[in-house]
Specification:
Shape: globular
Helix content: 40-55%
Strand order of the largest sheet: 2-3-4-1-5-6-7
Number of domains: 3
Structural class: mainly alpha
Largest sheet: 7 strands, mixed
Number of helices: 27
Number of strands: 7
Distance between the termini: 61 Å
């Protein structure tokens, strides 16, 4: 008879729990995120991937260890980290994207429209105006390259014996077949053409590498509508896949750059060909080509403004006429214009400035008119915003997009003027361009006037900085007496500890003054820019003693302002290039540059196709795919945990989930700029309406914040119609003074190390418990209505 052996008791398999960590601005390593030097990448690539601790690589396949093994006492779920920092700062060459800063800022203006209903007529007008502002920046940048290459180098310096005598590299332009003015211009036109081609290639390459991620595996389900009846924009299945619009805008802007070069060449020849006694054949061909350029420009504008983003579904179609025919036609027109310009004209000589440089004034005037119209459209949209969709928290009363668009134009002007001024100074080393005794005439007069107003603009910034210092000092004095009230039962230190904490809180609150600073700079820029435009129109010389009417204090002040502004314009361009060069060798500098793009390139390229690529179009689908596939494969619970910018990515990914997956996912945000930055500056996507809709769709959401955090803050949703998402502010520092348990002073953490606070583990555990309770309630045959979300009221 065989020996009877007792049967071991059956164990109930516990469903796994996962914590998906998403880092914030600046990035970090998987080892730091997971607290273990031994990590392994389980999905993704070197650009963006999911990492786990080595011992957790297959934790879902070892449930017995999870219950009885070394993880039995662990209160945490399985941790894994999504690292996306290489999307913005991994490659040293991306530091040169700093030169595309005006394009990025113009793209931000598109997403800053007020939260009016989607079908409002002014929204269409707003989007069209932003795309026209973006198009004008492409024309301005190409015109700046033409100013440097065609005007300063080929037209002025190559024709001046004093300027060209010590520059051997100008030999091909001063001797032989290429020495005639037209052929010099055609050869120099290769620089702006190469720049336009480079921008086209970068836009195409970055789309393929970073933004062409496939949409989520299933479309998101229905979400609660906004007050206007439409769905939140970030919940639409096509929001993170805008291939068709980017392709169309890329073709339009490429054609605009090529046609700008063609226009500059035609303008240079027009004065000579249309003079009395000029060549009739060249005059007729010039007029014919001018009509062709005008038709091309009209087509570019039509393509750029005809249709906006399609977000209701992923739009993978390509407008082949716009994407293929338009750039090819512009290239053909440019080639014909180049032949026309290079045609031999025996009596044609170059002197003074290149004809047509007054176009900079017209571009500036056009940009000012577009920004003014954009402000009107934004005001109309803000007035049409439904009640509760803004609640007085929109930056600058809805005019933030217009102000940012104006700053993008100003940045473009600074880069244009700075490059022209520095190249002119470099070419005319023995004198000052544009004044008697100089070897060349120098850049257009408008750029000198624009340079003269820069010191005034910097003075406004300095005044604002001094006001901020006074404000911090007063706020610190006001807060200092009440600091100790948050630390009852702890030993009291000297007042210096209270002043240290109060100063951190006061500095953090400066972030809320950013709309005032941006508004002051925008208004000052508008007034000074208008003054520079009028001054350039009334004079033919830069502001100086000769132009101002002789010696005296005011002319001397004008000359000093012009010289200082000219130096500052060039210094800004040199600084940007130097930062890019340093980032090739210094990883720390590369990471610092990446922080700029972490904030500025979250949004898809909806206005300017040459802006740096949108990393969220890769990161959001990555996170959505991971949450959908993991929950479906394991049936477990998942908490997505996002810090700083990672909280924005996490919220955007949760928006894209279908209802079944969303019921298994909890959202934990900390140090989050969702309301403080995104909600105020981008109300249409992150305002009170969309955030409240997300709060109602996600059963389990908790937000942690500190008063000392200059970036993160409360989300400010829930409350009246349900428990608040926000926990009461965490203490920072955790301990006021020295105690036997903590003999050394605790640091003021501000924006970092939220996971070191005991509240973090408590809130994560509560979220997972809440998920389990919701699952049990939903699986009961006679389940009652959805239980209250008690986790938010803890």
């Amino acid at each position: 008879m065989s020996e009877h052996r007792p049967v071991p008791p059956q164990r109930t398999r516990r469903e796994p729990a996962l914590e998906l960590l998403v880092h914030g601005v600046g990035g970090t390593t998987p080892q730091e995120m997971l607290g273990d030097p031994r990590t392994v990448r389980i999905a993704g690539d070197g650009t963006a991937g999911i990492h786990r601790r080595t011992e957790d690589a297959d934790a879902e396949n070892r449930p017995e260890e999870t219950l009885d093994g070394p993880f039995a006492d662990r209160a945490r779920p399985i941790p894994e980290a999504y690292c996306w920092s290489n999307l913005t700062s991994g490659n040293s060459a991306r530091a040169l994207w700093l030169l595309l800063l005006p394009f990025m800022v113009a793209n931000l203006a598109h997403w800053m429209r007020p939260a009016a209903p989607a079908r409002h007529w002014a929204q269409r007008v707003y989007d069209v105006l932003v795309r026209l502002v973006a198009l004008s920046l492409t024309v301005l940048l190409t015109a700046a390259a033409c100013e440097v290459a065609l005007d300063l180098v080929a037209w002025q310096c190559a024709a001046s014996e004093r300027c060209a005598s010590d520059k051997s590299w100008l030999g091909p332009l001063t001797e032989g077949w290429w020495s005639s003015p037209g052929r010099r211009l055609v050869l120099a036109a290769l620089l702006p053409v190469a720049l336009t081609t480079l921008l086209w290639w970068l836009s195409h390459r970055t789309w393929s590498a970073y933004e062409s991620a496939s949409p989520p595996p299933r479309p998101p389900g229905p979400t609660r509508p906004l007050p206007g009846g439409e769905r939140p924009a970030l919940s639409l299945p096509g929001f993170w896949y805008g291939r068709r619009l980017v392709s169309r805008l890329r073709a339009a802007h490429t054609a605009a750059g090529l046609l700008t070069v063609a226009g500059v060449l035609l303008t240079a020849t027009a004065r000579h060909d249309r003079r009395p006694g000029g060549d009739t054949l060249l005059n007729v061909s010039g007029w014919t080509l001018a009509v062709a350029v005008a038709a091309g420009c009209t087509s570019v504008v039509v393509v750029a403004v005809r249709k906006g983003r399609t977000e209701s579904e992923p739009d993978e179609r390509i407008d082949r006429w716009a994407s293929k025919v338009l750039p090819s036609a512009a290239s053909a027109v440019l080639a014909l214009v180049a032949v026309h310009t290079a045609w031999h004209r025996p009596d044609w000589t170059s002197s003074a400035r290149l004809p047509g440089t007054g176009a900079f004034a017209w571009i500036t005037l056009l940009q000012g008119a577009l920004v003014a119209a954009l402000a009107v459209a934004a005001y109309v949209l803000h007035r049409a915003t439904p009640p509760g969709a803004c609640e007085g928290r929109c930056a600058m009363g809805g005019l933030g997009g217009a102000a940012v668009a104006l700053l993008a134009c100003a940045l473009g002007g600074v880069l244009t003027g700075g490059a022209a001024q520095r190249v002119a100074d470099w070419l005319d080393k023995g004198g000052t361009p544009g004044v008697p005794g100089g070897a060349i005439a120098g850049p257009p007069v408008l750029l000198s006037w624009q340079a003269s107003v820069i010191p005034t603009l910097l003075l406004v910034v300095v005044v604002f900085a001094l006001v901020a210092v006074v404000r911090v000092w007063r706020e610190r004095r006001r807060l200092t007496p009440g600091i100790v009230d948050d630390y009852e039962g702890e030993p009291r230190e000297l007042d210096s500890r209270s002043r240290q904490i109060a100063r951190a809180v006061a500095l953090a609150r400066l972030t809320d003054t950013a709309p005032t600073l941006i508004g002051a700079i925008a208004v000052t820029t508008l007034l000074l820019g208008a003054g520079a435009l009028v001054g350039a129109a009334l004079t033919e010389a830069p502001p100086g003693p000769a132009a101002a009417g002789g010696p005296g204090p005011l002319p001397a002040l004008a000359e000093t302002a012009q010289a200082l502004g000219s130096w500052l314009m060039g210094a800004m361009v040199v600084l940007l290039v130097a930062m890019g060069r340093r980032a090739y060798r210094d990883a720390a500098a590369r990471r610092t540059v990446g922080i700029l793009w972490d904030v500025g390139t979250f949004w898809p390229r909806a206005a300017h196709p040459f802006a740096p690529p949108c990393y969220a179009e890769r990161a959001v689908p990555d996170l959505t795919w991971r949450m959908c596939t993991w929950t479906e494969r394991t049936g477990g619970r998942l908490v997505i945990s996002g810090h700083s910018q990672g909280s924005v990515l996490a919220a955007a990914a949760v928006w894209q989930l279908d209802p079944a997956t969303r019921g298994r996912v909890a959202l934990l945000t900390y140090g989050s700029p969702l309301e403080r930055l995104y909600g105020r500056w981008f109300p249409a996507c992150f305002g009170p309406g969309p955030l409240n809709a997300l709060s109602r769709e996600v059963d389990c959401w908790r937000n942690l914040w500190r008063r000392t955090d200059p970036i993160g803050g409360p989300v400010m949703v829930g409350g009246d119609d349900g428990p608040s998402v926000d926990r009461e502010p965490l203490r920072d520092p955790l301990h006021y003074g020295r105690t036997p348990e903590y003999p050394l002073p605790a640091p003021v953490l501000g924006h970092g190390e939220y996971q070191a606070d005991p509240a973090f583990d408590a809130e994560r555990t509560a979220l997972l418990e809440r998920l389990a309770a919701v699952r049990r309630s939903s699986s009961a045959p006679d389940r009652p209505d959805r239980p209250e979300r008690s986790v938010r009221s803890r």
